[in-house]
DNA sequence: CTGAAAGCGCTTACAG
DNA sequence: CTGAAAGCGCTTACAG
C-alpha cells in the first residue's frame, strides 16, 4: 500500500542507494540528484520504513523514558525539560509507563532487552544497586533522573539538604514540636528527607522522636498521594501535645494535609516538598526542585553518552531552594472549618 | 553482542523456522521441541529483535497513544484505564507527546506515516474534521478519546450536558448572576461547555450576557491552567454588580480561581469540571468525568478494530455526574484573606 | 510436526 | 558522486 525505496528509486531514475543517501542527509549527493529524489518522494508521500531502517542500520535515533507515569505533576515538569532538549537534537522520545503493580526492574529489563532505543532515561524508578547492576550487561546508555547510582550517569536532587532547609526554617521560626509527614519508609526519597529532617533537629539540639514520624495508611505510589497526606495529618492533629509545625514530604501529600486542617478547623504551619505548578496557587511553602532543568540535564548526558560513549559515569546533583508562601505562617486566627 | 535466532537454532539443533514458531506460540510445535528451544533461549537470554519481527511479519503488537501530555492530571486517569485494558491483551503501549508548540496534526501525521504501531489512540487532540480526514488515507485503526468525529471510533463525554447540570444546579440554588469562567473560545470542549451553560440559562429564562463569559489571559493549553483561572477570577471579583456564582470550565482553573478568592477575601460559590484526584481534597464541587472508563473503553474499541477490522465507526458518549462538595456552598462568613 | 528458502525495506562498505 | 550487492534478524507460505 505504501511506497518503498524501490518505488522512489525507479520513479526518480536512480538506485535505492542514492535514495537512501538523500534521506540520510549524506553529503555526497549531487544537489540536482537530491532535488530530483525529494520531489518524487514528496509526490508519492514516501516515508522510510522505520523498522527496516533500524534493522539495517542498527541505529534508531530514539530514546525511551521509563517512568511511573502515574506519579504525575512532578513528571510533567521533567518531561518539558527532556523534550526541549531533544528537539534540538532531532531525536525521538518514547515514553513508557512503569506500572506500580509488578516489579519495576522486570518491566525495565524487558524493555531494554528488546533494544527499542539507543538510550534509556530511568525516571524516579529508585531501583536498588543490585537491580541496576543487572542492567549493566545490556551495555546500553542509561541515565538516571531523580535517582542515583554509581553504575550510571545520574541527575539527582539533594533531598537531604532540602529537608534540612525546610526543617531548619521551621525551627528558626521558633517551632519545636516539628513532625515529619512521611511516606513509605523504604522509599529512597523518604529516607533521604528523613535524614535531612533529623540533621536539622540535631543542629538545634532538638531530640528526634520516633512518634514524630507520621505516615498515612494509603501506600499507593509509596504513599505519595493526597489521601495518605490527609490520613497522616488527621493523626497529627489528634496528638497530645499537638505538634506546632509539620515538614511534609511532598506537595501532593500537603494537598491532603490541608484538607484535614480545613475539616478540623485546626491549623499548623507546614512546609512541603517539590513546588508543583499547583503549589503556588494553594499557597504551599515548599522546597523547590528544578524539575525542568533536571530533565534537560539528564537528557543532555544521555545523548552525549550515546554519541561519544564516555567512559566513566557522571553525576549532577541539584541544590534545593526554599519557597516561602502562606502555608508556613503562624495561624493568627483560628481557621474556619469548612 | 546479543544472540540471534540462528544462535538459538544451532544450539537447540533445530531450524530457525522452529525457533520462530516457538516464540510465536504456534500450536504446531511438538512440546518436547518447544521445551528444548525455550531452555536454550533462556540460557542465552535470547530476545527476538523487534524491528526484524516487525519488518518480516508486518505486525507490531503495539498501539500508540498520542496526547498533549502536559495537560496532565486528566490524562493520568485515562492512562490507567488504557493500561489496565491493554494488560489483558498482551499489547504494548507507547506514549508520544504531542507538543502544543507546533501544529498537532503535523506531528500526528508524521508519527502515523512511520507506521510504528497497529493502532493509534488520539487523546484530547481535538483536531478538526478536515485534519482528521487527512488521516483516513493511512488506512490504520484510530480511536479518538475525549473527542468526536464521524471518521473514527470515538469515546467522548457529554460536555454540553455536564455544563448544563452544573449551571442548572447553581440556578436551582437561587443564583442568577452566574458567570462562566472560560478558556480558549475555539477549543471544542469550551464551545460545548459554553453551549451547556447557555442551555441552562435559557431553560430558566435567564438572559445570556457576553460579559459573563470571562477568560484569563494565559492561553497555555488553551487556557486550561491555574494561572488563567486565577486571572479570570480576579476579573470576576471586580465586576459590578459582582456575579453571585461561577461555573468554571475545569478543575485546574478552579485551583487558580480559589487563590484569587483567598487573596481578595471574597468568595463566590463555584462548580467546575473534571473531578481530578486533587479535587476532592480541595473541596471542589464539580462535574465528574469517568476518565478511567473512558480510557479502557477507547482501548477496547481500538483493539477490536485491529483484530476484526469493523466497517463502520462506533461512538460512545459518557454522561456527566455532579459531585457537590464545599466550593459551591453559599459563603456564610466572609472568607479570611491569606 | 519441521525445514529450506524467499522476502520484508532498508543501509553501507566496496568499487568505480 | 553513484550503483550493485550483501546483509540486518526475523516470518511464513510451501513442501514434505
Automatic annotation (TrEMBL), chains A, B:
Signal peptide: none
Domain HTH lacI-type: 4-57
GO molecular function: DNA-binding transcription factor activity; transcription cis-regulatory region binding
Entry keywords, A to Z: DNA-binding, Repressor, Transcription, Transcription regulation
UniProt KW Transcription regulation keyword: yes
InterPro entries: HTH_LacI, LacI/GalR-like_sensor, Lambda_DNA-bd_dom_sf, Peripla_BP_I
Highest taxon above the source species: Bacteria
Name used for this protein in its record: LacI family transcriptional regulator
Amino acid at each position: 500500500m505504501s511506497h518503498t525505496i524501490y518505488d522512489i528509486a525507479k520513479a526518480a531514475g536512480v538506485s535505492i542507494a542514492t535514495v537512501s543517501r538523500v534521506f540520510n542527509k549524506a553529503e555526497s549527493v549531487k544537489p540536482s540528484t537530491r532535488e530530483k529524489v525529494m520531489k518524487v518522494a514528496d509526490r508519492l508521500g514516501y516515508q522510510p520504513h522505520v523498522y527496516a531502517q533500524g534493522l539495517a542500520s542498527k541505529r534508531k535515533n530514539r530514546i525511551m523514558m521509563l517512568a511511573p507515569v502515574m506519579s504525575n505533576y512532578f513528571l510533567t515538569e521533567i518531561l518539558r525539560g527532556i523534550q526541549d532538549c531533544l528537539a534540538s537534537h532531532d531525536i525521538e522520545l518514547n515514553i513508557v509507563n512503569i506500572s506500580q503493580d509488578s516489579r519495576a526492574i522486570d518491566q525495565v529489563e524487558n524493555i531494554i532487552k528488546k533494544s527499542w532505543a539507543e538510550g534509556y532515561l530511568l525516571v524516579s524508578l529508585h531501583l536498588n544497586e543490585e537491580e541496576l547492576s543487572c542492567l549493566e550487561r545490556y551495555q546500553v546508555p542509561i541515565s538516571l533522573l531523580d535517582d542515583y547510582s554509581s553504575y550510571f550517569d545520574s541527575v539527582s536532587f539533594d533531598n537531604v539538604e532540602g529537608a534540612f532547609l525546610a526543617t531548619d526554617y521551621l525551627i528558626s521560626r521558633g517551632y519545636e514540636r516539628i513532625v515529619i509527614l512521611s511516606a513509605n519508609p523504604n522509599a529512597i526519597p523518604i529516607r533521604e528527607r528523613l535524614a535531612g529532617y533529623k540533621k536539622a533537629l540535631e543542629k538545634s539540639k532538638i531530640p528526634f522522636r520516633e512518634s514524630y514520624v507520621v505516615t498515612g495508611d494509603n501506600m499507593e505510589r509509596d504513599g505519595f498521594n493526597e489521601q495518605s497526606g490527609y490520613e497522616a495529618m488527621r493523626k497529627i492533629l489528634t496528638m497530645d501535645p499537638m505538634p506546632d509545625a509539620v515538614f511534609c514530604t511532598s506537595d501532593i501529600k500537603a494537598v491532603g494535609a490541608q484538607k484535614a486542617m480545613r475539616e478540623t478547623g485546626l491549623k499548623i504551619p507546614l512546609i512541603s516538598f517539590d513546588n508543583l505548578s499547583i503549589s503556588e496557587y494553594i499557597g504551599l511553602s515548599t522546597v523547590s526542585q528544578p524539575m525542568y532543568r533536571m530533565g534537560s540535564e539528564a537528557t543532555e548526558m544521555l545523548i552525549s553518552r550515546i554519541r561519544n560513549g564516555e567512559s566513566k559515569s557522571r553525576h549532577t546533583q541539584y541544590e534545593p531552594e526554599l519557597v516561602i508562601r502562606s502555608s508556613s505562617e503562624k495561624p493568627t486566627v483560628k481557621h474556619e472549618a469548612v
